[in-house]
Every structure is written in C-alpha cells, then in structure tokens.
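ok trying this again, last paste got cut off
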Amino acid sequence: MIRGLVAALLATVATPALAEDVTSPDGRIVATLDVDNDGVPYYRVMRDGAEVIAESDLGFTFTDAETMRRNFVIENAVTATHDDTWEQPWGERRFVRDRHNELAVTFRETRDTSKRALTVRMRVFDDGIGFRYEFAESADMPVANIAEELTEFAIAGDGTAWWIPGGDWNRYEYLYNETPITGVSIAHTPMTVRLDNGTHLSFHEAALVDYSGMWLRRMDGRRFRAMLAPSSRGAKVVREGAFETPWRTIRIADGPDGLVESNLELNLNEPNKLGDVSYFEPAKYIGIWWGMIRGDWSWAQGPKHGATTERAKEYVDFAAENGFRGVLIEGWNYGWDGNWFGNGRDYSYTRSYPDFDLEEVAEYARGKGVRIIGHHETGGNIQVYEAQLEDALDLYQRLGVDVIKTGYVADAGGIISCNADIADPCEGEVYEWHDGQRQVQHHLKVVQAAAERQIAINPHEPVKDTGLRRTYPNWVAREGARGQEYNAWGRFANGPEHDPTLVYTRMLSGPMDYTPGVLGLVGAEGVPIASTKAKQLGLYLAIYSPIQMAADFKESLAEHPRELDFIRQVPADWAESHLIAGAVGDYAIFARKDRNSEDWYVGGVNDATERTVTLDFDFLEDGQTYAATIYKDGPEATYLTDKRHDIAYETLSVAKGDRYTVRLAPGGGMAMQLKRR
C-alpha cells in the first residue's frame, strides 16, 4: 500500500565552483556539496546551525587510471523533494514514511588530459543523510577498477564511539569497544557515536550491491576515511559501464530513541522487486542446534550425531504441541566430517547422512503442521555451493522447506571462490573476503534464486545488512554479529553489556537471528550465561527478527512453562516499535505493537549495572485499558550468582498515562504482555 505525495523534480543550474546546499524537511540539517581551492570535492553537514560533519573530501583512486580527487568544478546541480509512505510486508513497523530533499551535483574535471565527470547524489532526511556516487558510461573509462574510495567522515566534535574492528579474522563477531572517537582504529559499520553535546550519530551504508563493503579507517583526530574490503583481483571493485555506489549514511538524532527508530537505510533502498511475498510468515522456531553448539551432539556422523530422524521427529512433536512454526535441522547432510571450517569442499546439499531421512522428516512435519527450516553450511566455499545451488533449492522447494539458514564459517579472508581468469567450469580457487564484492554478489544470487522458489533466506557469517530486505523481502534476517552461541563457549563469554550494546550498533543495520530463549542459562560444561531468566525473555523485544528462535533444548524449555508460554505468544511481526527507555551500551526497553491484534509488548535488556527504570504507557490507545502480565527480575536476581534464575511475575491493569517502575538486575531484563480488554 503506497500513500502520500511524491513532489515533482525541480531542476536548477548552478554557477561553477559555488557551494550547493540541501536542507532536511524540518530545516534542522543542512548538507553542502562544494569544491575547495584545489578543486577537491567535499561535503559538510550542519545541524541547528552547528557543524556535525566538518569539510570531508570525496573521490576515488583506481588501479589503472588517474586519481579522481583534484581539479574539479561544479558543472550542474539538480534538486528534488519526496514525501510518501510505504508498507513493509513484515518488520519493526508496518508503515514507513520517506520524506527527504535531494541534491545531485555533477563535478567535472578541468584538466586538459581528462574531463571525467562524477555525480554525487545527496538525500537529507529529518533523521540524517545519505549520499552516493554515480558514474555515467564513459569511453574514457569503460571499466572502473576502483582501488579505494577517498570518502571522508570528519566528525566535528568530541565524543564516545562504539565499534568493532574491521578487517580482522572473525568477521563481525566481536564484543564492542567503547572508546573516545580518537580511540577508534579500523571499524566495521554501523559505528555509533554519542557526541559530548548529546547528539547521536551512526555511520553505515545502504543498498550494498555489486560493490565491496565499507570499513571506516581513522586517519587522524576525528577524521575517518572509507576503506573497501579487499579483493583477490587487486582492484577492490570492478564495474563496467554506468553504475552507482552504495549510499554512505549518517543517522543524526537528539538521543538514542531517534537513532534506533530511524528508517534511513531502508528508505535509501529500492522498493520491493519481488511482488507478493506472503509465502513468508514471521514466526518462531526451535531446532537441533544448541546441543551442537554446546558439544553435546555433533554435526558430523558418529555416536553423537545430532540430526537423526528420531530426534528430528521429537522436535517436530514439541513444535506442534507448543505452537512453533519451524524446526531448524543442522548437520543432516554429507560434508561435516573432518575439517569443514573454511573448507567446505565435501558438502552435498542434497544427500542425507544414513541416520537421517530428509523425505520422511519433511513428510512427518507436514502432517503435524510444522515447517522444516533448512540449513546450508558452506564452510566459506561458495564455489561448491553455487555449483549445487539450483538442485539444493529445488529439493527444499519440493519438500515444502520455505526458510533456509545459510552459513559461511571461515576466517575473514577465507571465502573460496572461482578463479575469474579461468573459463567455466571453474578449475581453480581464489580466496575472497567475507564482505568483498565477490561475496556481496554471491549473497544476492542466493537470495534471488531462493525468491524464484518462494524461499526465505537467513544467512549466518554474512555480509552486513544494508536495508536490502526492502528490495528483496525474502532476505528476512541474518547473523552478522557475536550471537548467543558464544554464551556456550566460556563463562560470561558475551558480557551482560553485549545485548544492550547490540541494540544501538548492529541492530541499526537490520534484523538479527540472535537465537534467544536459552532458559536454562547454561552453556558447555555447565558454564553460566551472563543473563537472568527475565533477560532471555526481554531479548525477544530488544533484538528484532521476523524469525525468532527458542534456542534451548526442548527439555529445558519444558522445564520453564511460564516463560515458554510467553515465548509462544510474543509476536515476530510488529505494527509499531518504540524505544521507551535506554542509553547506548547500558539498557534498552521497547514497546512494540502486534501487527495482528491490538496487543502491545514491552521489554528489554540491561547491562551489569543494577538500575530502576520508570516506564510510561503514553504509547497506548486513549480510553482503553490493558491487562498486563509482567515477567521481571526477582529481588535476588543477578547474572553473577546462581540466583540468575530468580524471576518474579505480576499482573495489573494499565492505561495510557500510567507509569510502572521496575528493577533491572545486573545482567537482567524484563518482558510484559499488554492485552487490550
């Protein structure tokens, strides 16, 4: 459903070398595009009359052409306005308003040896900016072999940054650093910044298609420069003819709520290209997974093999009895024996291990009204996966498997691809980065092939989310951060501050398959998890995904019937979502409205600091009362002791204007169901 008004384009011609400005619809943000005295293109961002992004250079270097940096003038400028509202088929909110003003400036070189042109398109929203480069088809440069972008982000004030290292072996799976801005080295995006004046910023990108992912490298002081993920070819990006880069984005907000509730990257992506995607149903699932993560079972064949026909049927039975739509089954196929990490040469995506009958399990699940969630681990070997992709997807389509979790377990530069210099079929291997151009191309290929068969994709060890779920709504979630699995591998391996930090960093890019619901709070060999029981429920509100797992063993879930009841009922699809209390890295409490009823859910997560929070119910409908069922940390709850299971329950009646005060334990959280009477 599309509503609203799209204004007509207003074309203007600029005088060469004069600055061009574009202002946000509310008038608070002003972005400038200009050239300096050396003809270097740059941009600058002001908010409420104060500089937020100081003069920041724009440009490119190439492997086989002169640098695009100096000797430019402004050739022309075109402006536009836009205001409409579009509907998400699923998401944190049903309707998204896209209101922005746009400026497209074409810079032209003045040297006798080169007259190349470069267009920078800047869109300014009330909640930030996005800009991209546009290259026209050119006989002088029919192929662009990009060595690096020279895009800068010069942060104008001091502040604190939350970031993870870019270009390191473990992809995005790190605990977040909290440092002064000047303490950042090379960072993945999103990178979140809180300036000393309270302004909140997030640096990221949108619509990452056929291009390398962008890291941020601090040059000096508070000045950062784009750094593209490497490629085996030398050139980090190779593009033919006319093309556009991804959008470089900066969310700008007064506080954490504005940062979290922004739709900036979604609005910078193209509309849905797939049409009707009602075949995807947001839902919750369980799976044969936690036992492998903890080491109780194995993915490989042998006496500990997890994915047996018998165990799969038991999990299907539990799902059917408790209202879970899906059952994830990992380790069912050949290829897991031996060293598959960063290898993947032996995987078959159509051949089951002898003790697992895929056809039988799929038929059994259908009879119970349950869907199997498929699994394709590649070990980072996209050459092997792409060779089998069509057959693998056809098999799942025939069996009614309509969601697939893919995996790319390999070190950052360990993606195995075809040697582009060898004619097909590929006879050689090269190694690519997880977020390089080749892997970006691969992920979209999988998503598009799955869409043809009405299958949704949830990649782990992925390329980061950049809002492409708007264009390809079967791209429903991904991992792309340090998930719940780390809790199984060491005492407090994910510290209590990790979850509330994710809300303001990783989650700004899109849905995450974090795998909450480990109610037993125990990892491998009995190691405790840095969480209370109430926090495991709060994760369903804090870490959004349209597919939410109850990750624990089915026996453990059954041992906590009241908590299991909440997990059964909490939706995975929302009409509205609001951050009603929180601070970056400290805590986060959301209010979310069910898309399919008038009910609301409130909940979230806390760090290691005990705190008391007062919640306002101003989001509720006027004149209505709601029956509240509350799950909260008990009086002795703390992640530090065996009291982490201490949980309290409460019921009361609430209405708009009421307030509720709740204790959040160290490593704690809370959840609340509000049913309209």
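PB: full thing came through this time. Confidence is low (pLDDT under 50) at residues 1-17.
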